[in-house]
Automatic annotation (TrEMBL):
HAMAP family: IspE (MF_00061). Catalyzes the phosphorylation of the position 2 hydroxy group of 4-diphosphocytidyl-2C-methyl-D-erythritol. This is 4-diphosphocytidyl-2-C-methyl-D-erythritol kinase. It comes from Natronoflexus pectinivorans. ATP binds at residues 93-103. Keywords: ATP-binding, Isoprene biosynthesis, Kinase, Nucleotide-binding, Transferase. It comes from the Bacteria. One of its GO terms (biological process) is isopentenyl diphosphate biosynthetic process, methylerythritol 4-phosphate pathway. The lineage of its organism: Bacteria, Pseudomonadati, Bacteroidota, Bacteroidia, Marinilabiliales. Signal peptide: none annotated. It is an enzyme of class 2 (transferase). Residues 200-256 form the GHMP kinase C-terminal domain. GO terms for molecular function: 4-(cytidine 5'-diphospho)-2-C-methyl-D-erythritol kinase activity; ATP binding. Pfam families: GHMP_kinases_C, GHMP_kinases_N.
Length: 271
């Protein structure tokens, strides 16, 4: 069975407060990027143990630490799954705020549930996904949602982005979570994200913020320059996604911008 885990972007990201458990409460909108995909294939293994292989973008670390394998291990805590041969073709840049690893894990859970007819509900799968990463659960239903808490408390949201062009640029700069949070002072936003998103998109630039940008842009001016380049070339709205380093822009017309050959880019018309 083959599935195609997709990327996501964040529309706004406010760090609202620090929790007693050391995590932060936030609010953001997760928006799936349906046409930018990894490829995950799972078939029964002829061996007595799992086999895991990767192609495409290089992934650091052992296979045991890969989120796909962690998803499999977690599923086996709830039900029996036979030995598998698993191949992941990696296309979505990792460590860029695009959720590629989280999507791989969530899609693995959904694949196992369907392939082996386990009949876990979406709610069950979301609970499993939450143990693998804060933004993993969003990829179970894989639709735009307002997220609060540590990014795992979802509510519906209506967005009108159809026919706009979405351009994402990942410069390959690693921004650690600790680095991104280093300059954050949590605060309640003056206007909630879901209220901002009811305004015309041309007004988002004034109100819709990613709290990580100030810290990350100061340390990595090249990331800030990508955002400014979007606006110079006609973006209606542009922002860093998550804690970076990928930056996206929304355009009315298909953008024609030249980028460094070291950058990974993705362009799609939102449908």
């Amino acid at each position: 069975m083959i599935v195609f885990p997709n990327a996501k972007i964040n529309l706004g990201l406010n760090i609202v407060s620090k929790r007693n458990d050391g995590y932060h409460n936030l609010e953001t909108v997760f928006f799936p990027v349906k046409k930018w995909n990894d490829v995950l294939e799972v078939i029964p293994s002829t061996e007595n143990s799992d086999e895991f292989s990767v192609s495409g973008l290089n992934i650091d670390g052992s296979s045991d630490n890969n989120l796909c394998m962690k998803a499999l291990t977690h599923m086996r805590q709830h039900t029996s799954i036979p030995p598998l041969k698993i191949h992941l073709h990696k296309v979505i840049p990792f460590g860029a705020g695009l959720g590629g690893g989280s999507a791989d894990a969530a899609f693995m859970l959904k694949l196992l549930n369907e392939q082996f007819q386990k009949n876990f509900s979406s709610s069950d799968l979301e609970k499993m996904a939450a143990t693998l990463g804060a933004d993993c659960p969003v990829f179970i239903k894989n639709q735009a949602v307002m997220a609060r808490g540590i990014g795992n408390e979802f509510s519906g949201i209506s967005l009108q982005l159809k026919s706009l062009w979405l351009l994402i640029v990942a410069p390959g700069i690693h921004v650690s979570t600790a680095e991104a949070y280093g300059g954050i002072i949590p605060k309640s936003p003056s206007m909630p994200i879901n209220e901002i998103l009811t305004k015309p998109i041309k007004e988002w630039r004034k109100f819709l913020k990613n709290d990580f940008e100030d810290t990350v842009f100061q340390k990595h001016p090249a990331i800030a320059e990508i955002k400014e380049n979007f606006y110079r070339n006609g973006a209606i709205y542009a922002s860093m996604s998550g804690s970076g380093s990928a930056v996206y822009g929304l355009f009315k017309d298909k953008p024609e911008i030249t980028w460094s050959s070291t950058y990974v880019t993705h362009l799609e018309e939102i449908s």
